[in-house]
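Archive record:
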Amino acid sequence: MKGSNILLVAIAGAGLLCGCGTPSDTATTSREGRLFGVSFQTMNNPFFVDLNEGIKEVVEARGDRLVTLDSQFNSLKQKNDLSDLVLRDASGIFINPVNWEGIKGSLLQAKRKGIPCIIVDAPAKDADLALCTVASDNVEAGRMAARALAEVKPNAKIVVLHLSTNKACIDRVTGFKEEMAKHPGMEILDIQEGKGTTEGGRPVMRDLLGRFPELDAAFPINDPSALGAVSALESAGKLDQVTIVTVDGSQPAIKAIQAGRLLSTSAQFPREIGRISAEKMYEHLDGKPVEKDVKVRVELITKENAGSFLKAE
């Protein structure tokens, strides 16, 4: 009888060692397919929500699973999140960098473990360490914004609400300036950091209005900061005096265009960026060659075509 008890204890102990209770990632992977991860600079933006859905759609269609991580615009948090994905032996990682110069260490860590990384939406300085970069043609998006503004205000006095840690935004401002150079009457009065958020854009626009009474146009680098600028202009009673052009193509921005609160937004296609990124990852894992730089189309949205971009609710 004593020997039987010992045998039962041994069996129970073996059961615990084999993973009874919380299953390990390896055990989960065997049941749910391979693990992939994506780290976004923020999830407090409809653009990144849609981009995530594009990745997830492809990953889940292959029987795999996606872990989505929100860096909350914190580069240290993003570094730690990416390190965690590497330690979990992710089959592939998608990175939307908080700081375009700040992910070299993470890319090297993944490379040492043989984990492919794809940069999505916002290019990185050390992109050569990644499998590829999939992003909108952000330079062209900036050009589109400047062209739209030049058509209605060829002598515009402009302020720019920037996010200079983000390469996509740097490219947008570069394209804007390139196109603006063709219109000698247009002038940039100041460039300030708008943080890429509604909350960040609002006080910056309020301050710029106070410092530049001649200001009559603004180029916030994305829709959330543009909507923050709109809020500041409405509070100051100057929305009808300042023309705003921006980039993203989000649903709130499209509705603002229809309401006459924004002139234009250069539409990106985040779900398409996500889908293409995931497809490139699987092409690589299937042993196929993948190009290093994949550009995704952009398209100008104005009041004339806004209705065709609006999703049914």
Observations:
- Residues 204 and 288 are 47 Å apart (CA to CA).
- Residues 2-17 form the longest helix (16 residues).
